[in-house]
Amino acid sequence: MLNQVSLNQVSVTVNGTPVVVSSGATVAVAMVLAGQVCRTSVSGEPRGPLCGIGICFECRVVVDGNPHVRGCQVLCRQGMEVNTEK
Amino acid sequence: MAAAACAAECGVRVGLVDDNPRLGGQIWRSESSSQQESDPRIADASHWLQRMSTAGVTALCGLRVVHQPEAGVLLAENLDGLYELRYDKLVLATGARERFLPFPGWTLPNVMGAGGLQAMVKGGLPIRGKRVMVAGTGPLLLAVAAYLRKHGAEIPLICEQTSWGSLAKFGLALFRWPEKIGQTIQLKRDLSGIPFAANTWVVAANGQAALDSVDILRDGRVEMIPCDYLACGYHLVPNVELALLMGCAVDQGCVQVDDLQNTTVASVFCAGEPTSVGGVELAIIEGQIAGLAAAEHATEARALFAKRRKARRFADVLDSTFRLRPELKNLPLPETMVCRCEDVPYSRLQQHTSWRSAKLHARCGMGPCQGRVCGPATEFLFKWNPDSVRPPVFPARVGTLATGDEPLHLQHSDVMGGH
After folding, report:
1. Residue of A nearest to B22 (CA)
2. Complex prediction ipTM
3. Which fold does the domain A2-84 belong to in CATH?
4. pLDDT (tens digit, 9 = 90+) per residue, B61-95?
5. B373 at the A interface (CB within 8 A)?
6. 0.90 exceeded by the pTM?
7. DSSP-assigned letters across all residues of B219-279
8. B280 inside 8 A of chain A by CB
């Protein structure tokens, strides 16, 4: 898997499935590319990024076990594990 | 960045704290892919980056300020931990965010802000071949549409809520700012062929798991337009939370400053959008003045007053051109969520008469965004005024707030700037 990722790309795992993104891409972008929602709202609605600049907290996800991480403010790192925040 | 560079050039030690992972704020936010050297904005950004680095500014990115336990001390955190930052002078340059208005379907995935989608594309989202509706109000819509098209998106229509009459007046007013005319002509070239409608707005976003079309109201008729993304924002709102936390006076949503960009709190300056939404040129001039004033070079700062006066008039024109039409207050249905953090629908808010009452009884504005999205929306819908901020101004980890964690002490700086 690692060998297939070129220099300007990184591979992350989104809800258990590997996704390859360009290096410098944010975690929120990886979620949208993977077709996964970032979080489920308190009444159960699927939610994705809204403001893109760290204000709205709609893109918060679990990154390597850390909850409530704003996906738009964190860059993807090789091997990162990202999960939808329930 | 202008404040940091100018202050550091006067010989004081400067640290810049930025919540974003990269320097440059929303306008100069760098692209994750290749940069277009021909873009004058990028040339401006490199100019200030160069000056900052030559003058020896220490930049701390991806770090957000959450609290000021006492004057002169800020607490900030990132994924790795907590930092204590000490300053003698502070320049707040917290920028602005988009105003979002609730309408049916606005919480669906792939409905984003106009600047929001642009930031996502800059953050690496491929947009080539996607159909993107651009809607809302303000000059940002045109800039975003041009940017998205340049990156391969198809834009079926730009919907601007303001009237053709206001836009015509705005066009005439532009002649007072020759540098804006140049930008406008370039923008017009970049936008050629994209249909544009004034007096038009989105009334609903449709789809199940994600967006598949939007309904717009044009000349009294509803039309459905299929699309992959909706980029929708209603101009900008100043970010004044940090200024409020420091105790700076804020009037009608803007931080109050004197000629030298001093706020009402000693040693705290403010520059750019928080003082009035006026665009990048005004923000740079104010930043320079604040940086020079913070470094006690008031004479050099005063030399920029005339330029600032001219740029501020543009802020006033923006305000009057893109004023929101009252019909937009009728967009939400009873079940439309207004507070997205706590899922508070419009019908629950109608029972309340103030922001405080809605907060206490319906939890509106009590979620992680702390009313940054629903606050400006309810201000427009119900004329409510969010009355205060409390620390932490951003959700912080409990470890950050508990005293058990010893903060990491960063090198002391004379002037801290940005955010």
Report:
1. A73
2. 0.94
3. Ubiquitin-like (UB roll) (3.10.20)
4. 989 898 999 999 999 988 788 899 999 999 999 99
5. yes
6. no
7. TTEEEEEE-SEEEEEESEEE--HHHHHHT--EETTEE---TT-B-SSTTEEE-SGGG---H
8. no
